[in-house]
What does this fold into?
Amino acid sequence: MITVFGSINIDLVSRTARLPRPGETVPGSDYSLIPGGKGANQALAARRAGATVRMVGAVGHDDMAAAALAELEAGGVDLSGVKRDGATTGMAVITVDDHAENTIVLSPGANARLVASDLAPGAIGAGDTLLLQMETPFAESLKAARQAKAAGARVILSIAPFLPVERAAFADVDIILVNETEAADLARHLGLLPGSDGAATVTRLAAELGRTVIATLGPDGAVAATGAETISVPALKVVPVDTTGAGDTFCGVLAALLDEGADLAAAMRRAAVAGSLACAKAGAQPSFPLREAIELSLAGNPAFP
Ligand code: RIB
It folds into this structure.
C-alpha cells in the first residue's frame, strides 16, 4: 500500500513555438486545464502501475477542485485523505514549446495548508510506502516521514522542485529521488562537488548521506547509487511531445514496483520506461502509462536485458 502525502494542482497549459523571454509576449495555443501536481501525478502513476494508493492532500473550495481530482478518482486512487481547505486549489501555469521543454509557475493554494495531522494515526503500517515531494510544507512532510518510519514503512522523497534540504531532514528517508540538476544542486548545497556525470554525483550523495539516491537523466535513463552498488537503466527511445510529469511518472512507478516487492533494478527499468512513455503524449496525468503498456515496451526490448 502506497500513501502519497503531497500536492494536488490543476495545470493551465498553453503550447507555444518557443518559450517567451522576460518581458516578451508570444502567441500560444488554446489552453487546456489538466489535473496535475507532483503528489497527485505520482499517486496516479503508481496506481496505473498496479499499486493500491491513498492520496493525502488538500484542494480548495473552488470549481478547480473537482477537475484536479478527476483522473485520480477515475483511476481508483483512494481520496478519503484529501481535504477541502482554503479558497483555491493549487494551480500550475505551464508553457510547453515545440521541443517539449516547459516552464512552470506554481500557485500553491490549498497545498500550503497540508499538515502532518492530515495523515490519520495508524494510516501507514509496516511494509507500506510513503511517497513525498516538495510542493507542500516540507516540515509537515518530515513529520509524516517520522510517523511512517516509526511504523516500519519505506519512505521515498522526491526533491522536486528543488529546495536546499539539510542533512538532518533525511533521517527518516530511505530513498532520495532527484533529476540530474537537482542532484548537482543537492551536492553543492551539502558542500560536495557534483561529479562529472549523474552517476558520479549520486554515488557521492549516497556515500555522504548513507541513503539510496536515484537520479533521472532524461533521454539517458536513470542511475541509482545504494552505497553497495550503482545501477544504470536506459530510457525508451520516444519522440518527445511534452516532458511535464515524466519525473513524477518515474517516482510513482518506482514506488509501485518496490512496494510490490520488486528489486531496485527491476523497479528502475519499469520506472524509466514509464517516464519515457509519459514524454510521448501531451499533458501530465493523461500521459501516464498503464502497467500493461510498460511491460509491453520492456518485453523483448534488447535495451532492457
Ligand atoms: O511535475 C509536473 C507537475 O509540476 C505539474 O503537473 C504541475 O502541477 C507542477 O506541480
Observations:
- The longest helix spans residues 264-279.
- The domain at 2-298 is CATH 3.40.1190.20 (UDP-N-acetylmuramoyl-L-alanine:D-glutamate ligase).
- The chain has a mean pLDDT of 96.
- The CA atoms of residues 100 and 242 lie 4 Å apart.
